[in-house]
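Human: You know discrete backbone vocabularies at least as well as I do. Show me how you would write down a chain together with its backbone fold. No explanation is needed for now; the record alone will do.

Assistant:
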Amino acid sequence: MLHALSSKLSSIVMIAIIAILIAVPLAMRPADAIPPEGAERLIVITPHNTQIRWEFEHAFSMWHEEHYGTPVVIDYRRPGGTSEILTQLKAIYGAALKRKTIAPDGSVEDGTMPYDLFFGGGSYEHGQTKQGITAMVDGEEIRIPLSRPAGFTQEELDNYFGENKIGSSTLYDPEQYWTGVCVSSFGILYNRDLLRVLSVEEPTEWRDLTDPKYDGLLALGDPRQSGSIATTYESILNMQGWEQGWRTLRAMSANARYFTGESKKVVLDISRGDAAAGVAIDFYGRYQAEAVIQKGAPPESSRLGYIDPQGETFIDPDPISLLRGGPSPELADRFLRFVLSEPGQAIWNFAAQGDDAPTDRLGPRRYNLRRMPIRRVMFERHMDSFIDQANPFDAATDAPSRGWRSMINHMMGAFAIDVHHEMKLAWRAMAEAKQRGADPALIAEMDALFNAMPTHTTLDGEELEFNTANYRTISTDWKNKEAAAEYRIEYTRFFRENYERVVELSRGV
């Protein structure tokens, strides 16, 4: 009996502990985080930060209650960056296809998939969402998009966007599988104090970052970990062309302190003075430049500066993709329309209005997001209300995509990231040779070795020069997983040996 009583008491204690564990977090939640009674629920997968998530949930809920009579709670899921999100989505839809939740023709019932929409990231990743997954049906390979068309009329699209173009990019997918809702760019963040120490001018173009004075003080992203970084490096190739583009990327890499997959690390290190300059996403750069200003001081007094190189900046839409089979497709449609409305667009770059601001006042309530809206009308009507007086439609480059993106990760891994120590020794050896007035012929030989590209051996054994004429064949060979491992070894060995030979030449060996 005592044993039974003890067991019962243990059960009661355990239930009480569980109740406390559940109740305490609920009690400690801020009041505005508790779902309002009768609220509808939208499930969103996103890489966006806390500030963006809060502002759009708060604004959309108020807008929806005004127009449709009910508030909305947004259930955000954030498994990682855009690459991780894309991997997860493909796995979920691939598993559903195997379970036959998705029919062979690609149709899927609403409510059978876990997410309503994918909010944030770049056009490349959302293009992959459109591309979706492939499956064999009756011996034929079919493609099943993960997203569904937004269903706007052409009149609506024209009203939202006008010409479907910003620089060399489109603002929305012509088939409406993704829709841009703001735009992003990668520019240059720099530390003015360090630049004065280095005796270099503030950078205005990408080639400025190839100055050997930046040696060991340039913060760069790893394109293998960030699709946005890969897009930025691709834009340099597109703008400068094959020969000069690779030379610029090589020299920037030689100046690099590191290559990171964390966008915030670049910004924080430049702010602390651990790096003099680096490639930063626009809103992180602008936000940090503002954050270090002393209270009441003018913006130009900041020790940090940020610039989108004029005419050299690749502007990329930051889209929403409506996902197929989500729990609340109608609510997802409404959210997209809200984000494209003027009240929704104002959230991106207006100053925070405060929690007590009138509901009809445009802009975010608590946070300055420092993002650029995608609709031209916002720049025409509301530019004076923007925190950042910049127009991405003016800064965007018109350089068309040359289709060279697929080799950026492989090449930058082989010629820079995986042999960075050897690369830096060669870079410094060339700089020292120039400083001591070495024979121009020797410097030219060192430069040719430093910037050389390997001869590519095809899967059929043919040797090809690494150039634009052979690019398609080379990039296709790299897609072979078994061959790619061998190519990685061969290419890396080539670059390492060249860098070692540059050092030897500098010593007169």
Notes: DSSP finds 19 helices and 14 strands in the chain. Residues 224 and 409 are 5 Å apart (CA to CA). The first strand starts at residue 40 and ends at 45. Confidence is low (pLDDT under 50) at residues 1-31.
